[in-house]
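Reminder: ligand-aware prediction takes two inputs, not one.
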Amino acid sequence: MSAISLPRLPAIASSAIAMEVLNGLTECPKTLSPWLFYDQAGSRLFEAITELPEYYVTRTERQILAKHAAEIVAAAAGGRDLSIIELGAGTATKTGLLLDAAVAHQGTVIYYPIDVSETALEEARTRLESEMPEVTVEPIVADYTEGMRQNNAAGIDRAGRRLVLYIGSSIGNFSPADALEVLRGVRAQLSPGDSLLLGTDMVKDTEMLLAAYDDAAGVTAKFNKNVLVRINRELDANFNPYLFRHQARWNEQHSRIEMHLESVLAQKVAVRPLDLELRFSRGETIHTENSYKFTDERVLGLLTRAGFKLRQQWSDDQQWFTVYLAVAN
Ligand code: TRP
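Here is what comes back for the chain with tryptophan:
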C-alpha cells in the first residue's frame, strides 16, 4: 500500500461510492446504481449517446417538442403566465424549444432547471441567457424532491402556473414503484392546475431497442464500462475493463432494457481500501441500469395514481416516443 493513499483511507471507506460497491457487488446478482455513470467522463459520453444514429430517443422527442411546443405551452398556461421547471435538466438542450414557445406566449419566462450537476446547470444558464435574453434562468442544484420543495417554498409564481418538464424518458430509469413515488413527490409540490410534461419511450421492435443501447461505435459500451474506470480511480480497485463485456438485454416480463457488464472469464478483483476481494464467475454480470419501455396504459396508470389527469398527448408518426401533458388534480 502506498504511503500517499493512507491518509485518504477512512474517507474513501465511508464514501457513497464505497457503500455502492460494498452493497451492490457483494450481493447476488451483482448490481451497481446508475448515478455512478455520471462523473465528468460519463456525462460527456452520455451527451454523445444522445447523438448516436441508433439512439432515436432524443431526436424523436425533440421532433415532437419542435412540432407542438406552442400548443403545449398554451394548454399548460391556461391563459395565465407560465414558469417552467425541469427535472434533471442537465445542459437543457431540448428545453429551448419550450422556452421559445413560452416567450412567444407571454414575452418573458422564468426557467428553474433542477439538477445535481452544478457544472451542467451553469453551462445551461450561460448558453440560455446569451441566446435568449427574455429567459431568466434560476438554477437549483439539488435532487428532484429537494429541488421541487425549494421551488415551491420560494412561492414566487403563485399568480401564474407552473409546468414541470420531466422528459428524455428519465422516468424509465426508475422501477415502477419508484417512478410512482417520484411523480407523487412532484405532485405534492404543485397546486391544482399546474402541469407535468412527461416524455416516455414506448415498447417497440426488440432489435431496434437493443441497438439503441448497444451502438455500433461502442459509445454505450464505453459509458457502461466507465463505472469500472471510476471505481478504479476513486476506490483504488483493479478492474480490468477489457475483461468485461457490455451487454444490453430485453427483459420482456418487466418491459425493460437492462444494461449489464459481463465478466468474460472467472476472475478476482481487489478493492484494497475496503479490504474486499470480489469474485466473478465466467458469464456473471453486474446489472448497471434499467430503461423501462412504456405503453399508454402504463403511463396513464402512473399519472392517475400520482394525482394527475391527462390533458393531451403527442407522438411521432411511428409511435416510438410519447409526450404527455397532465394537470395536477
Ligand atoms: N433515460 C434515457 C434512457 O433510458 C437515457 C439514459 C439513461 C440512457 N441511462 C442510459 C441511455 C444508459 C443509454 C444508456 O434511454
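The domain at 56-204+295-328 is CATH 3.40.50.150 (Rossmann fold). The chain has a mean pLDDT of 94. We will return to this case in the review session.
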